[in-house]
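Reply to dn_fold:

You asked what the input looked like. This is it:
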Amino acid sequence: MARYYQVRPWEVIWRAITIIWSFGWFLIHLQWEKWLNPNRTDQNKCATELRQILTRLGPTFIKVGQALSTRPDLIHPDFLQELIKLQDQLPPFDNQEAFAIIEKSLGCSVDEAYREISPHPVAAASLGQVYRAVLHTGEEVAVKVQRPNLRPTLTRDLFLMRWAACKFGGLLPLNLGHDLTLIVDEFGVKLFEEIDYINEGRNAEKFAANFRDDPDVKVPCIYWEYSSNRILTLEWINGFKLTDTAQIKAAGLDPYAIVKIGVTSGLRQLLEHGFFHADPHPGNLFATLDGKMAYIDFGMMDQLEEETKETIASSVVQLINKDYLALARDFVSLGFLTPETDITPIIPALEKVLGNAIGQSVRDFNFKTITDDFSELMYEYPFRVPAKFALIIRSLITQEGLALSLDANFKIVEVAYPYIARRLLTGESPQLRRRLLEVLFKDGKFQWQRLENMISIARSDEGFDLLPTAQLGLQYLLSDEGRYLRRQLLLALTEDDRLHTEEVQRIWELIRDELKPKNLFDAAINAFRELSTVGVAAILPTTTKIG
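and this is what came back:
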């Protein structure tokens, strides 16, 4: 894009003038209104003007407005109500032009493709507009048609954003430095992926496969015969926008339960599948009539590596356990700190910033608050924002805003931590089991309190069954892979005598009754034999008695 605009500077200059003029005039008008009416609380006129400016400037700025519309803790209510309209109440483009795009893309007339189609779009978004239709086979569908001439507008805006990031990134409140350009690059890549509807359809099917066993998440089917890179035909979803709290309650649905589904499914995307929805604003999420969470837009998605998922999970546990040394090490692993950084002076600063975060409601524990507190640290210490995490942060902030919209007292930590505790306790992969060991051992000593806390918090979720988890844990303990853990547990048992004979007997009965296959029973005997060879005589009477 830089090479392209080097020989067409007038296009970029004119666009920059348009942007500066639009926001400059708005700020002057806003300040003028404050001077004329210093006690005025109603700002509807200025809010409407801001929405209209963002709409005129096009899809890039509309997406900025969409992100702000999910932040009731940051935006004045008058402005919030206007910005919410950017989610699905944007001006549509010409109907005949949309039908012409359908016919050109599908290679057939609109009547040949659909038995019925709404004469006007039912919703208009930043990149396209949606029609309600019925296929000749009877299925009710949504037909998504892309706006014309998107690419020139996107390229100009992204070029200007990247230029501004290079020139003025260091002047921002957050000390992001040159990494801000990487964030713009990441955003640009995802934006161009988002205007490829074939890619979006594939994303939807991959997302549906990940949640095929989850009864609380609904993903629409894709009709490929009636789809192309500019047209997407998908199953019609009946439901309520997540911001329509009154309608959700009137339908007999529990807003808290809906938010919990959203947060849990968001955690599963980040920590289980690694394939996550990076644009979960209320226009893309619905509460279905039967209480499910429906995702309907899959243009902006991203994939996490396995190690990143594990580190994120362990860092949340370190935060809960207030182990700021381990948390600082996780920041290094995630790329927020460079490997050569001396983390010793950072640990007290992390404790100061994050120490009061646990146990607060979303209104008190939010990413804006954490960002404000971190801004001072980022000038004093070499924190940076990895490009990969730009979309993750955006996704988390948006979901946090939705939680505020539905339930201001929703405690996001109370949902997040039980899920992460279950993930670590079940340990379905060797990597997760390794992370669990890192959490449970500190300075070579087994942290009984952490294990008890994790089990207690995991059991606070009604869907958590301790017995299968205990079985998995015992199988791991008695396997070759669990040799290190057996020896460390033995040392912990004999050092502080945390387990009494009766407790060990109950564990043995669980092994005998629940793990009946002979090979597992023999493995248990072999494991106890191994323990006896360590040379710690304190438990020999116990093992002899059990035997």
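Residues 173-178, 513-518, 531-547 have pLDDT under 50 and may be disordered.
Hope that clears it up.
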